[in-house]
# Entry
Amino acid sequence: KYSTFEAFVNAVGTQLPIIMIAALSIGSEAGYLMLAMQLLMIPMVFIGGAVSQVYLAHAPEKYHSGKLRKYTYQCIFQLIKVGIIPLVVICILAPMVIPYIFGAVWQRTGEMMLRMLPWFIMQLIVSPISMALHITDHQRIALILQIIGLIIRVGGVWLFSLYSINYIFEYYAFSSFLFYSIYFIVVCVIINLSHLNFNYKKTNV
# Structure
């Protein structure tokens, strides 16, 4: 009922701003952005994807035993220890390495990757644990969060373009970081509430 629309809204919120940037910006800004996103997705797929599969395999059991909060925080700390360092290293080196690999004309891609670092750090942390909303039967909240992300990113890019096209990418990077930060806060609140609810039911049995 909710997950299909959630996936659709998430895809629109991610891809439509790139199309808008391509239409509104000067030069090859969208091309640089697409390459930057593809390169940053490499550690996301290997690290975030692996943790996501492990989390989804064990989280339902942890939820029913009242240990979801502890398990989720353990996964977050693992992501921070294992995933953030490669992302930071890649983004710091990108402005220097990208021109040698792809040519000097792609220098802008390296600069974008460095500015996208906060966004992808939050996405790396949030993506695996976002399934906590489904496990705790809060699919509607997950959909609402994706709609909020769509408004923040697409609506913001459009409004920003009315005043200046020079920093549209910077706004898109910031809005994506803001979206995943909001998502992270909501997931933490939900798992804490579910933990309190479990303890309350256990006390009153």
